[in-house]
Amino acid sequence: MSSKPESTIYFYAQTDAYSEFSNFAPYGVAFDDLWWRTVEHYFQAMKFHDDDYRERIRRCGKPKDAKALGMTRRIPLRADWEDVKDEIMLNAVRRKFQTHAIPRELLISTGNAHIAENAPMDAYWGIGPDGAGLNQLGKILMQVRMELQND
Ligand SMILES: Nc1nc(O)c(N)c(N[C@@H]2O[C@H](COP(=O)(O)O)[C@@H](O)[C@H]2O)n1
């Protein structure tokens, strides 16, 4: 049985504490022999089946550019995106923490604290404008933390 969290850790901007937990943090991931500069690059590219467009996202410089490219609907979003996006995010976040010791040790050091993405505009991955969002990214981070703690 897990104990009640003692506190909440908020993260979001690269200038704030715990920025290592953001998908925008400079910790790359490898999938299928390809290197992605950040989790954000990989996640945004997976929205599309178009290989050229995926590669354009993979090669773009900054995670905010990857996110902007991922927002386009000029290239069709894959039809199953809503069904697969949580698992894609989990796999990418898990890979990031398996790959990089600095964010991994920081995540493990949070013990059983609640983790929340303090994203003001995002009530799905973050807690949104009123703090009541789904916080799916925070939940994934807590799941990955539990896996690492049990390793
Ligand atoms: N705009 C922005 N800036 C940041 O610094 C962020 N961490 C985020 N949040 C991330 O956006 C991704 C979700 O993108 P979609 O809305 O599903 O296209 C996800 O990685 C959030 O963590 N956004």
TrEMBL record:
Pfam families: NADAR (PF08719). It catalyses: 5-amino-6-(5-phospho-D-ribosylamino)uracil + H2O = 5,6-diaminouracil + D-ribose 5-phosphate; 2,5-diamino-6-hydroxy-4-(5-phosphoribosylamino)-pyrimidine + H2O = 2,5,6-triamino-4-hydroxypyrimidine + D-ribose 5-phosphate. It comes from the Bacteria. Residues 10-149 form the NADAR domain. CDD domains: NADAR. InterPro entries: NADAR (IPR012816), YbiA-like_sf (IPR037238). NCBIfam families: ribofla_fusion. This is NADAR family protein.
